[in-house]
Recover the amino acids of this structure.
């Protein structure tokens, strides 16, 4: 298998010390040793030594959520996310992707989203058309909100309307490349998708990324892949915090006591932890979740639920259990994917809210 020397070095340097063993949300959900980062490194090492075939570990390669908890905790500073992404790219190049991943990749290439959706819901279409005029600010909704959680996309539009922001939303919003990057890493197709959306974004002064997965891609991965961005890209949470500071968004405590579910893309990847807290604290009493900020535990997503639905349910259940065990009553999310994942758990002890729910309530 052709992976970079750097990736090989990271794989081989894993010391199987177990320090990342207990923090992997997938490993904890499945209870399988093979789901942990250290076991994944061992499997890749065996493929590199021609002891087993890539096909024998490929499902395991797609169990990783790329959440970076292991990277954050690895005692030797090695990077399981990096080598897992390289193996996915190599599997794509060698035509060794599992059929369920091929379907998602094909959908990304033909429809711009892994789910193969070709139409938006009617109410979202109407709301987007009301913001079709060009302005300096683009609200970039992202594929999850547009195609799988249109009520959340509508709420984001309403929040910016409430704050009196002049903004544009695109009916034909191109994909950010985040999904392809997750599925096949730094392939030419991924970079082409990123370049296409960058060309669109560069027509605006400011691009507000509603989805943390897109924010991470635009603000971090574009730079790594040489995609030029001339606009200012900001996270939705940072944009809201600024609206609050300027007085455009009026603070109003709704009487709830909540904890915040840090999306790893904001806290670990982009180093943004306080902006969402600033907004939440203006609308509710903010307490802290077990494992928060850079230590956050991922609560699942829509994309992986396409091929690991039961595991996603377990991942979300475990995060809800964290809140329950601290006797918390409500979790506020800043990721449409985590919101959807947590909402999918049948329970009524913990209220699941988005930032928008809190502001619009
Ligand atoms: S990135 Fe997250 S899901 Fe993947 S191995 Fe590390 S801790 Fe587990
Ligand atoms: S913490 Fe790092 S070195 Fe230890 S098992 Fe995990 S990946 Fe390997």
């Amino acid at each position: 298998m052709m992976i970079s020397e750097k990736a090989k070095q990271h794989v081989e340097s894993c010391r199987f010390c177990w320090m990342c063993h207990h923090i992997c949300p997938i490993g904890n959900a499945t209870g399988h040793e093979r789901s942990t980062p250290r076991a994944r490194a061992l499997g890749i090492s065996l493929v590199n030594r021609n002891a087993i075939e890539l096909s024998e570990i490929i499902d395991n390669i797609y169990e990783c959520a790329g959440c970076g908890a292991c990277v954050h905790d690895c005692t030797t500073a090695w990077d399981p996310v990096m080598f897992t992404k390289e193996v996915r790219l190599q599997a794509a190049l060698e035509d060794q992707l599992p059929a369920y991943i091929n379907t998602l990749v094909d959908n990304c290439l033909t429809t711009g989203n892994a789910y193969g959706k070709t139409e938006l819901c009617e109410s979202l279409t109407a709301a987007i058309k009301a913001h079709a005029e060009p302005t300096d600010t683009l609200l970039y909704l992202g594929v999850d909100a547009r195609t799988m959680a249109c009520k959340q996309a509508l709420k984001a539009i309403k929040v910016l309307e409430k704050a009196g922001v002049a903004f544009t939303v695109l009916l034909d919003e191109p994909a950010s490349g985040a999904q392809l990057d997750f599925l096949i890493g730094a392939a030419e197709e991924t970079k082409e998708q990123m370049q296409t959306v960058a060309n669109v974004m560069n027509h605006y002064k400011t691009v507000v990324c509603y989805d943390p997965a897109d924010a991470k891609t635009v603000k971090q991965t574009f730079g790594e892949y040489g995609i030029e961005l001339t606009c200012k890209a900001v996270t939705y949470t940072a944009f809201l915090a600024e609206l609050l500071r300027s007085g455009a968004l009026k603070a109003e405590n709704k009487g709830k006591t909540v904890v915040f579910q840090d999306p790893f893309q904001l806290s670990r990847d982009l180093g943004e932890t306080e902006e969402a807290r600033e907004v939440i604290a203006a609308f509710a009493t903010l307490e802290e979740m077990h494992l928060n900020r850079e230590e956050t535990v991922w609560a699942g997503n829509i994309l992986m639920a396409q091929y690991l639905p039961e595991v996603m349910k377990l991942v979300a259940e475990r995060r809800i259990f964290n809140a329950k065990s601290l006797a918390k009553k409500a979790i506020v999310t800043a990721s449409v994917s985590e919101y959807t994942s947590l909402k999918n758990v049948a329970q009524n002890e913990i209220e699941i809210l988005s930032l928008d729910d809190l502001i619009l309530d």
